Amino acid sequence: MKTISTSKSHGGIQGVYAHASEACACDMTFAVFVPPQAKDGPVPVLWYLSGLTCTHANVMDKGEYRRLAAELGLMIVCPDTSPRGEGIADEKDNWQFGSGAGFYVDATEAPFAKNYRMYSYVTEELPALIAQNFPADMSRQAITGHSMGGHGALTIALKHPERFKSCSAFAPIAQPSTAGWSKPALEKYLGTDEAAWRAYDTTLLIEDGKRFPEFLVDQGSADGFLQEGLRPWLLDDACKKAGIRLILRMQDGYDHSYNFISTVMDDHLRWHAQRLG
């Protein structure tokens, strides 16, 4: 692991790091905020999964999480959203696929299967690296994310309920297998058999019996992607049928940007801190 930068903030340390990833077969960059409480021992971990076109840096620069994370004693881990670099398959003119758009799946289709294994990266490889190199209490983990990352957070929590104490999301893609901006990506990464897509679709995972105790979801009412891409009412319906507690908060006038995320970030941090203990 290589340290790219570190900077003190609110008594803690915001760092950016890189390492050679086996899962993605390339170098990967990620950010970690270590709160001041880590001086006294391991601290709980909150994973933040970013959305389309983002890197580790978007939430680090615009998410406004450090002040309260330092107060609450939360380590914040921000992975990248896809493999990057020369020789990695990409569609440079398509912002909904390839670089910056890994969708937190393990691709099975050529030529993407070699590198686009973001599900394994964020659920196996990077957690092992964090546990080895940072003062993280891996018995206390939570997960959240925005848009594509909200989809990732929800699906990962549903498939690993024993690992995560809590899960929330900012404007998540509720049903990526039918949304216009995600269905083409799933087909390219996973093939044309839609049965394979179910493992990466929150509503269908719930339909297939996966469970998590509760979710907190914030969604802006003025989000330009609300009707065609995000559709939180599908998640609401799936959770009601399954008996999963969903706190779905429609935030009047807010869009899809980090202006929205930073506005409700404190609520999410407090939600997770309460459940992490």
From TrEMBL:
Keyword Hydrolase: yes
Single annotated GO MF: carboxylic ester hydrolase activity
EC annotation from Swiss-Prot or TrEMBL: 3.1.2.12
Entries under Pfam families matching the protein: Esterase
GO biological process: formaldehyde catabolic process
GO cellular component: a single term: cytosol
Record keyword Hydrolase present: yes
Keywords: Hydrolase, Serine esterase
Transmembrane segments: none
Entries under InterPro entries matching the protein: AB_hydrolase_fold, Esterase-like, S-formylglutathione_hydrol
Highest taxon in the source lineage: Bacteria
Catalytic reactions of this protein: S-formylglutathione + H2O = formate + glutathione + H(+)
UniProt-annotated catalytic positions: S147 (charge relay system), D223 (charge relay system), H256 (charge relay system)
Family: Belongs to the esterase D family.
Function summary: Serine hydrolase involved in the detoxification of formaldehyde.
Protein name as it appears in the record: S-formylglutathione hydrolase
Source organism of the structure: Aminobacter anthyllidis
Lineage: Bacteria, Pseudomonadati, Pseudomonadota, Alphaproteobacteria, Hyphomicrobiales
Gene: fghA
